[in-house]
């Protein structure tokens, strides 16, 4: 939507809307439209600007002024930061993606880490332990683990940030030639300034946003590759102003160049630039066609000169980067809430025990009744209760052990390495392995509900291939032999008879080439002659090889197809085009080129043949060609049937037609054409009317069918993900027809769906809004919402354009009068605030309604959207549906979306790496997304849930024994275990088995995970770990702690040992409870293990053996002699564990703790098995049935009413104006000898804007 269309919704009701109109600039806001720039607030800045304007231009709407070769002038423009520091208004060219530096690392990193509730908790705990009166454990027992945890996390963060520093240094230290002191000198990118003149060479990266001044190519053309920006690999041309092309070729001329560029402020709109060059008392308008953007690459141009307009953070590619958000998983957020609950539980528990201690002191423990407990202190019971409260806070701090977060990080890191090592996600063609670029989000991969995907380079390969055609009613392209009979034999056509063939066309119909060469059907020759003549492709000779440069990849594919069939486009000038027709070189005079635009959806060329006849050749969308056909044209119906057949196979179709023109008719029309060409007002509209006048009574030749090749496995991946209840939205900058075609190709859209466009959705939202207003006024009782507005018998899908998206979401901006505004009264300001609040509330309600509607659709395709709109759509779903989102793309225009989503995935292995650098995960093909989510994501989520459930259980079981023990020790905060057992329990005795499960466990194999995508659904619902699971874990821990304490307690009451001794002392009791606990929790994780390996068995039994080995060592006399005050349980373990009845007590305790768990789980699996349980029970049968999937035939049914044409014309006009101007003529002496092309734009690297 153009920037002129920014009035309110009511004002727009009468306006005509076009789906292909590009939305307004992402950076426009009311403030920016209202004032020149918010950076020009201080008086000094205004004074400098005013002086500059008076010197160079009386009145200018532009505030960005850059003077060539004059750093002093450009440095005058400053802005004030932090209220006192003045810095240059223009950014330097160095970029920064890192988070820390040497000075900020420690404070910023610690601040981030202490945002975690547990870390802050342990810091408070450490402070408490430093107070002797309340400390029951030594302060270092908390300090050492806390320092270790913070240190490990800090080291990991430092390593990640050092990698960013290295990447920044690599980019900032790239070399470029800058004009300094009268000559070009090699300079680092970071030292380039706004206004510098730079010289670029072939294959150089463009270091900043640069205004093209001149190049070594004729008329200063420059070819650039924009893969880094949008994933496209087809070349685009840029063209300098004619005046700079003539006068700024030499170094000395560039040195004396002192032009002033006034242009728009930096913004993130890649396809927009407006400005003016003032030089030698003349002004020259500038547009995006003369701007070289940072991130692009110079191709096929030896030397390029330009002036830096935007540098560093002001460049468009950096403006598109979006804000980097700190991403946290849903489980992280849940863990924080659970930690808060445990804190509350701990406080309540400690408070209750403190009250008990107060009561005990006042009733039982006073000096008169229990004189043997008197400690020499006469503190009142209330004070002793207060001290006991803090003592219990310290004793039971293991309810949230500090090792929890370290263990989580270890598990995530292990899962990330498994992703990196997965050979089934390795893309051999590009030597690209999968890469987990973050280690903090792995389990979130198992909870994805919405996927937002780019199209070009993500779903498609950027390869256009000529597949079929219909000529005079006959369809060609099936498997046929040389005599026209259909066959089952798959054999490529041999084009070796054609010395110009490029060898890349895969065609299987042997009859068509024979028909062309024999001349039996003149229509076939006319068909391919049209393809060779009717286009705006430019050609160059590269060492004897013909290379085509096309504005549209489809156009390049068609011209290349004609070349392979013997009709070879050789060269063109302003007024002529030369082709080889089956070896015979013929030159046609070009009388007019009627170029494509988004309204016409066709292009035509008027030629004079070597025989003197005048012909018009036309190609375009079927809907516009059929409207202009002569009533007597042949094969109309049969060609329409062929178009339907092509559309059913989701091929991109195009109709071809021609017309003979008499000399008299052309002379009359040409006068109108020349008059419209020089029109000073409404030139485009005038030309369109003239074009319409000649493009009538056309004769149909046939139709072409081009395949926009999907990446391997895209359809299967989307189909599988949809079975896993994952909704997939496609967000693309491409045209509506193209995006819709791809939607059908990849099974996102099917023929049983009802497509709703922007107008229909807008009407629905307006209806819902009116219904809501009527209900408020009591006019109706019928509730109309997203759930009821769609008919019940339809399967809705939404295809909406960016312009409609802005209108529906009320994102358009209102332009204000900036020359004069009457000051508002206080009442008017108050009314305006109230109105703005109401508008904002209505806007939010409308946005929520839109999201509700969209989320009810089976598929959503948003086309012609800007990078910022992509991020906006993602954010709306996050905001209103609270859903976990994933965004996947391959270009710089996807970066904002990737950063906004919970998980960002970049397609690597292409030439554009901007998306990968901003992503969380990267791999080479879209199909790997299925394995990333359904296998690694699901496994990671289940492992993390098992880990957390078990971790909380084992610590509740461990810690709450202190609680039960308190009832028998006067609530004195005495520990139930030996101090060293408390220290080592979470470090050695119970940590390894759960870590192994967290890293290695699998409930079903990877193949079964892919075969049964519905296994993914519980993760989306958060079924495996939530508050319910946490409270069940808490209950389990409480029950086990009761068993662990009271069975040994009962066994110790009135018991006599085998040797006549009664080992009923505190130390023997502590050994018995600790042994029972250690064996129980390790056997419990064994019950939780689904996938057994040697490592699992070793970790479980090894932990138990390690416990007994360390305990016997710590209870030995030798270590007590060395450290008598530290190791006080001398001989406790040998003395206690030589009693058989204590072993029986341990066995009984373990059995009572575990057998109910086994019984309950068995009962659940029998009575109410889950989907996983069913698959596990039939695992062997499913594994035997698994076979390699057969590739599905590429044939899809589609409604006849669906628009067939999917021809992907360029988003801007083609090269017609360039050709007509005469500035596209290549170097003289263009060779026409046979050669093999290495074209970038046809079948190997074509692309659409995405």
From TrEMBL:
Region annotation (Disordered) ranges: 1-54, 821-841, 1220-1250
Domain P-type ATPase N-terminal: 67-143
Ranges annotated as biased composition (Basic and acidic residues): 36-45, 823-841, 1240-1250
Residue ranges crossing the lipid bilayer per the database entry: 114-131, 137-159, 337-360, 387-408, 947-968, 980-1000, 1030-1051, 1141-1164
Swiss-Prot/TrEMBL cofactor(s): Mg(2+)
Claim: Transmembrane is one of the keywords in the record: yes
SUPFAM superfamilies: Calcium ATPase, transduction domain A (SSF81653), Calcium ATPase, transmembrane domain M (SSF81665), HAD-like (SSF56784), Metal cation-transporting ATPase, ATP-binding domain N (SSF81660)
Annotated family: Belongs to the cation transport ATPase (P-type) (TC 3.A.3) family. Type IV subfamily.
Protein's name in the database: Phospholipid-transporting ATPase
Organism this protein belongs to: Chiloscyllium punctatum
């Amino acid at each position: 939507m153009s920037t002129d269309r920014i009035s309110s919704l009511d004002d727009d009701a009468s306006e005509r809307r076009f789906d292909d109109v590009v939305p307004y600039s992402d950076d426009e806001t009311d403030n920016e439209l209202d004032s020149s720039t918010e950076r020009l607030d201080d008086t000094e800045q205004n004074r400098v600007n005013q002086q500059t304007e008076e010197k160079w231009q009386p009145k200018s709407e532009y505030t960005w002024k850059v003077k060539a070769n004059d750093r002093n002038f450009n440095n005058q423009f400053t802005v004030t930061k932090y209220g006192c520091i003045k810095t240059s208004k223009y950014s330097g060219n160095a970029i920064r993606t890192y988070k820390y530096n040497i000075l900020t690392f420690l404070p910023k990193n610690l601040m981030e880490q202490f945002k975690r509730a547990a870390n802050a908790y342990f810091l408070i705990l450490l402070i408490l332990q430093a107070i002797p009166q309340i400390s029951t454990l030594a302060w270092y027992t908390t300090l050492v683990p806390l320092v270790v945890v913070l240190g490990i996390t800090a080291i990991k963060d430092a390593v990640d940030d050092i990698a960013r520093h290295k990447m920044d240094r690599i980019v900032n230290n790239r070399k470029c030639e800058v004009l300094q002191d009268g000559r070009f000198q090699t300079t680092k990118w970071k030292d380039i300034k706004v206004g510098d003149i730079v010289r670029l060479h072939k294959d150089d990266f463009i270091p900043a946003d640069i205004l093209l001044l001149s190049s070594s190519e004729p008329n200063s053309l420059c070819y650039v590759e924009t893969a880094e920006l949008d994933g496209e690999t087809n070349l685009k041309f840029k063209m300098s102003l004619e005046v700079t092309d003539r006068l700024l070729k030499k170094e000395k001329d560039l040195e004396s160049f002192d032009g002033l560029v006034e242009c728009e402020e930096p913004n993130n709109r890649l396809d927009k630039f407006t400005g003016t060059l003032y030089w030698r008392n003349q002004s020259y308008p500038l547009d995006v066609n003369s701007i070289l953007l940072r991130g692009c690459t110079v191709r096929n141009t030896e030397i390029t000169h330009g002036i830096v307009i935007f540098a560093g953070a002001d460049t468009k590619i950096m403006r598109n980067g979006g804000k980097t958000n700190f991403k946290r998983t849903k489980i992280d957020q849940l863990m924080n809430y659970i930690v808060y609950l445990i804190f509350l539980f701990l406080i309540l528990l400690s408070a209750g025990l403190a009250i008990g201690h107060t009561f005990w002191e006042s009733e039982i423990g006073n000096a008169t009744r229990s004189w043997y407990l008197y400690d020499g202190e006469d503190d009142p019971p209330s004070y002793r209760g207060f001290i006991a409260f803090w003592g219990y806070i310290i004793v039971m701090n293991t309810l949230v052990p500090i090792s929890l977060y370290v263990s989580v990080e270890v598990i995530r890191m292990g899962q990330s390495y498994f992703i990196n090592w997965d050979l089934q996600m390795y893309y051999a063609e590009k030597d690209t392995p999968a890469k987990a670029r973050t280690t903090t989000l792995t389990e979130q991969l198992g909870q994805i509900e919405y996927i937002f995907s780019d199209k070009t380079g993500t779903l498609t390969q950027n390869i256009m291939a000529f597949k079929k055609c219909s000529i005079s009613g006959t369809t060609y392209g099936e498997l046929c032999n040389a005599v026209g009979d259909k066959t089952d034999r798959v054999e490529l056509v041999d084009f070796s008879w054609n010395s110009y063939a490029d060898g890349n066309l895969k065609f299987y119909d042997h009859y068509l080439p024979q028909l062309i060469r024999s001349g039996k059907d003149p229509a076939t020759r006319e068909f391919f002659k049209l393809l060779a003549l009717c286009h705006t492709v430019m050609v160059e000779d590269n060492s004897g090889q013909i290379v085509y440069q096309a504005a549209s990849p489809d156009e390049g594919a068609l011209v290349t197809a004609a070349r392979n069939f013997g009709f070879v486009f050789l060269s063109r000038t302003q007024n002529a085009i030369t082709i080889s027709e089956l070896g015979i070189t013929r030159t046609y005079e070009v009388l007019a080129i009627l170029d494509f635009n988004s309204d016409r959806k066709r292009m035509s060329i008027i030629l004079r043949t070597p025989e003197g006849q005048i012909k018009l050749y036309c190609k375009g969308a079927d809907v516009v060609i059929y409207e202009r056909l002569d009533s007597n044209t042949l094969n109309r119906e049969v060609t329409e049937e062929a178009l339907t057949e092509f559309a059913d196979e989701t091929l991109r179709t195009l109709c071809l037609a021609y017309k003979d023109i008499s000399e008299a008719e052309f002379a009359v029309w040409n006068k109108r054409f020349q008059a419209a060409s020089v029109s000073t007002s409404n030139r485009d509209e005038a030309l369109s009317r003239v074009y319409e006048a000649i493009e009538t009574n056309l004769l149909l030749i046939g139709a072409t069918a081009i395949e926009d090749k999907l990446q391997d496995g895209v359809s299967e991946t989307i189909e599988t993900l949809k079975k896993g209840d994952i909704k997939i939205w496609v967000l693309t900058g491409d045209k509506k027809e193209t995006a819709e075609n791809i939607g059908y190709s990849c099974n996102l859209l099917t023929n049983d769906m009802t497509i709703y466009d922007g107008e229909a959705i807008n009407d629905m939202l307006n209806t819902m809004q009116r219904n809501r207003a009527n209900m408020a006024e009591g006019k109706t009782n019928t509730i109309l919402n997203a759930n009821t507005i769609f008919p019940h018998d339809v399967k809705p899908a939404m295809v909406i354009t960016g312009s409609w998206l802005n209108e529906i979401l009320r994102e358009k901006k209102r332009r204000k009068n900036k020359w004069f505004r009457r000051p508002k009264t206080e009442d008017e300001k108050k009314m305006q605030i109230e109105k703005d609040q109401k508008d904002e509330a209505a806007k939010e309600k409308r946005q929520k309604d839109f999201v509700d509607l969209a989320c009810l659709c089976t598929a959503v395709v948003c086309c012609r959207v800007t990078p910022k709109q992509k991020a906006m759509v993602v954010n709306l779903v996050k905001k209103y549906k609270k859903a976990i989102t994933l965004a996947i793309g391959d270009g710089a225009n996807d970066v904002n979306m990737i950063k906004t989503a919970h998980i960002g995935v970049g397609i690597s292995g292409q030439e554009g790496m901007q998306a990968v650098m901003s992503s969380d995960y990267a791999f080479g093909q879209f199909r790997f997304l299925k394995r990333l989510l359904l296998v690694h994501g699901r496994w990671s989520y289940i492992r993390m849930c098992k880990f957390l459930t078990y971790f909380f259980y084992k610590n509740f079981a461990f810690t709450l024994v202190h609680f039960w023990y308190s009832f028998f020790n006067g609530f004195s905060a005495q520990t139930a275990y030996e101090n060293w057992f408390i220290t080592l329990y979470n470090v050695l005795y119970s940590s390894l088995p759960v870590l192994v499960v967290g890293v290695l466990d699998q409930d079903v194999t990877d193949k079964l995970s892919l075969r049964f995508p519905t296994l993914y659904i519980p993760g989306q619902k958060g079924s495996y770990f939530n508050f319910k699971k946490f409270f069940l874990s808490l209950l389990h821990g409480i029950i086990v702690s009761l068993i662990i304490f009271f069975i040994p307690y009962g066994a110790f009451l009135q018991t006599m040992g085998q040797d006549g001794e009664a080992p009923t002392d505190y130390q023997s009791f502590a050994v018995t409870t600790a042994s029972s606990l250690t064996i129980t929790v390790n056997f419990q994780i064994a019950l939780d293990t689904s996938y057994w390996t040697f490592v699992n068995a070793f970790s479980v039994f090894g932990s138990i053996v390690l416990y007994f080995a360390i305990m016997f060592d710590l209870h030995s006399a030798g270590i007590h002699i060395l450290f008598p005050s530290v190791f006080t349980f001398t001989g406790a373990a040998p003395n206690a564990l030589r009693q058989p009845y204590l072993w029986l007590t341990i066995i009984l305790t373990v059995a009572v703790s575990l057998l109910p768990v086994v019984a309950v789980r068995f009962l659940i699996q029998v009575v109410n098995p889950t989907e996983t349980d069913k698959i596990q029970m039939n695992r062997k049968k499913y594994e035997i049935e698994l076979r390699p999937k057969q590739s599905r035939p590429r044939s899809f049914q589609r409604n006849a009413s669906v628009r067939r044409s999917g021809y992907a014309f360029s988003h801007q006009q083609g090269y017609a104006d360039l050709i007509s101007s005469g500035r596209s003529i290549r170097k003289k002496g263009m060779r026409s000898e046979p050669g093999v092309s290495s074209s970038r734009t046809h079948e190997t690297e074509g692309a659409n804007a995405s």
